[in-house]
Amino acid sequence: MQRLSIHGGVPLSGEVRVAGAKNAALPILAAALLTPEPMRITNVPELNDVRTMIALLERMGVAVRREAHAVELDAGRVAEPFAPYELVKTMRASILALGPLTARFGEARVSLPGGCAIGERPVDLHIRGLEAMGAKVAIESGYIHASASRLKGARISMNTVTVTGTENLMMAACLADGRTVLENAAREPEVVDLARCLVAMGARIRGQGGDVIEIEGVERLSGAEHSVMPDRIEAGTFLAAAAATRGDVTLTHAPLGSLDAVVDKLREAGARVEAQGDAIRLRMGERPKAVSLRTAPYPGFPTDMQAQFIALNAVAEGTAFVTETIFENRFMHVQELRRLGAHVEIEGNTAVVHGVERLAGATVMATDLRASASLVIAALVAEGETLIDRIYHLDRGYEHIEARLAQLGARIARVS
Ligand code: UD1
Asked: Is the CB of residue 374 below 6 angstroms from any atom belonging to ligand 1?
């Protein structure tokens, strides 16, 4: 099993390019199922989750050619609209095949995602939305079985903001008969990026980025070329690492405009953050100050940055209250951070972080993707060596993390 070895205490400094967004690339790859014509997607990050999505599409019969960050997909012949448990269980986002398959083929069999490390995470809103569009949905032996002759446009109001739910229904609605209105839709930039790709394919979508999205269904979609937006969570993670180590880091190809909530908090912590063209530079000269926050759907503070900010607060001056409102059970990084000397208490859905002057290296275990990122940040600050186990979680969402942090001066290596 691979581990990361990090010798902390070096302020990060230098320049790094932000990779394409995982959470935009996954739905955009799934969107290739909506058309019989070839698609070309560029700026696709090299990540395990992307490999899983490609494996899922290939398993259905989609022809995929990948060359570094470009992926060509041809779903002209799909043998079986089927997403098996073995693949879905490794990546919940496989559920994104459900909407496109049902819309284009009138049939889909997609495994229920099953248990997940960061809470319950049901998919009831995906299912109810498809039912509202006229699909018949049955749960059989752990599989969602959806069928419909042609989906019909509908008004769908979701009682919780769901990102992949919005994306699944938006994709399905593109090929439905008539107009669909999605109310209380997710406003995340990744939803907007997917909509941009769908519009390039000939979809008629309005209101993306707001909480009401209107889709006028069309008979068929064509192939298109699309470049995936940069990853705002990866960018935020690098910035938090730069702030925690009191570094000076410039991110190029940065997703300006989609990072406001994170940048506001970094400034509150004492960082100087400036945008320069499509680059962001962060400089932190002193010990960070504690910053309290509450996660919320976009444009609020992203839950996917919560763990990294607990790591930042762990070495800050003062006490921070970090409240998680999106997922229950998303504080599993806390007990690992404690092993490095962090002083954190959990009260309900709030982590109370009392900043300490120094952390000390130890062996820790990654429990999920963003939890791993918080351990990396803490390790970059800690004195001595930290060994992080189970880094396959990290490889799901961060491209060549050790090489890119090493480029910023970190003493980091992947060891077997
Ligand atoms: C997406 C992101 C993930 C991020 C999350 C919240 C992708 C591939 N993943 O996950 O990185 O952490 O958004 O920003 O884009 N819910 C329901 N019923 C449903 C669906 C969701 O109750 O049918 C609830 C969930 O349990 C959760 C909340 O809605 O409490 C938000 O979840 P959701 O936005 O759906 O998360 P994902 O789309 O899975």
From this structure: no
